[in-house]
Amino acid sequence: QLPLAVIFTMLVGYIAWLATASRMSFTREINYGLAAGEFELFCQPLIDAKKQDCVGVEILLRWNNPRQGWIAPDIFIPLAEEHNLIVPLTRYVLIETVSHLAMFPTASGFHIGINVAAKHFRDGVLLHDLNSVWFSAEPAQQLVIELTERDTLLEMDYNIVEALHQKGVKLAIDDFGTGNSSLSWLEKLNPEVLKIDKSFTAAIGTDAVNSTVTDIIIALAQRLNIELVAEGVETCDQAKHLRLHGVEILQGFLYARPMPLRDFPQWLAESSP
Ligand code: C2E
Ligand code: CA
Ligand code: CA
Ligand code: CA
């Protein structure tokens, strides 16, 4: 009979082995997927609350994995961050976006929002990627970097923030008001844009506490002269409330779901007021 301690050690070893094996395969899957072109860029329009025209897009990544089907970014982005693959993935998003810029309006400051993980801000990697991909293409559109904190606040290199501002890149704090994006970021990032998380938009007219928080976030941004984008706008009532409170830009299923980039020009033509 095996002593308990031996069984325990074997068990721990087996679990560690499993964890490594799954990490290896996930890393391989993503690298393979990148090489095989399995990642596809979608975009979702940003709407001017008053004029109702499209003033930009947010780029959203999708993984069409032939072995597992479509995988949502909420699943693979956190894993990619954990396995140090978020930088190559974001680089891919930048390259693909730049190569499709011609399908977006070039009129003054059309926003192109790209989600960037705080990890990418380390060691000048982001600046290097932007210089070699975005700035070398000299796009007419305005780059807006959307940043979500997740758990990497301490890993940020805030020196890069100043360099980005000087290059004319706008910074947006994503998911503002959730546990992921705290008030201390306002001071550290000096953002041009705040994105109100969709949970706060959903609370309008239904949840007294969170809907009060929404109004306070709006007031805060106005006092600091920061542009506001509300995410997850699904109803006319939400849009009206946000517009009346001075939120400039609205994004959500009410206007358009995220769509493949190639569908955008037709959507724009059909939706123009
Ligand atoms: P996010 O940056 O907050 O993106 C907005 C999410 O809200 C998108 O989910 C979008 O499809 C969804 N959404 C838009 N309008 C509505 C609405 O009216 N109602 C509801 N319920 N949802 C709406 P998606 O595309 O599944 O992306 C999820 C998250 O994955 C994103 O949240 C972002 O954090 C991350 N992500 C997506 N693409 C990228 C990427 O290229 N890089 C990085 N680092 N993260 C990404
Ligand atoms: Ca975002
Ligand atoms: Ca968000
Ligand atoms: Ca989110």
How would you sum up this structure, described in words?
This protein is of the alpha/beta class and 273 residues long. It is built from ten helices and ten strands. It has an eight-stranded mixed barrel, surrounded by five helices. Helix 3 runs parallel beside helix 4. The longest helix has 32 residues. The model has no long low-confidence stretch (mean pLDDT 90). The structure holds ligand C2E and calcium ion (3 copies).
Fold topology:
Layout: H1 4-35, E1 39-48, E2 54-65, E3 69-71, H2 73-82, H3 86-99, E4 111-117, H4 125-134, E5 142-148, H5 159-166, E6 170-176, H6 184-189, E7 193-196, H7 198-203, H8 208-223, E8 227-230, H9 236-244, E9 249-250, E10 259-260, H10 264-271
Parallel strand pairs: 2-4, 4-5, 5-6, 6-7, 7-8, 8-9
Antiparallel strand pairs: 1-2, 1-9, 1-10, 2-3
Helix pairs in contact: 3-4
Domain EAL: 23-272
Membrane topology: Multi-pass membrane protein
EC number: 3.1.4.52
Give the overall average pLDDT. 90
SSE sequence, one letter per element: HEEEHHEHEHEHEHHEHEEH
| Biggest sheet features | 8 strands, mixed, barrel
Shape: globular
Helix content: 40-55%
Beta-strand residue fraction: 15-25%
Q: Which segments are poorly predicted (pLDDT under 50) over 5 or more consecutive residues?
A: none
Summing up helix and strand content along with how strands pair, one would put the structural category as alpha/beta
What ions, cofactors and ligands are bound? ligand C2E, calcium ion
- The total strand number stands at 10
What is the end-to-end distance?
A: 79 Å
- Give Rg in angstroms: 21 Å
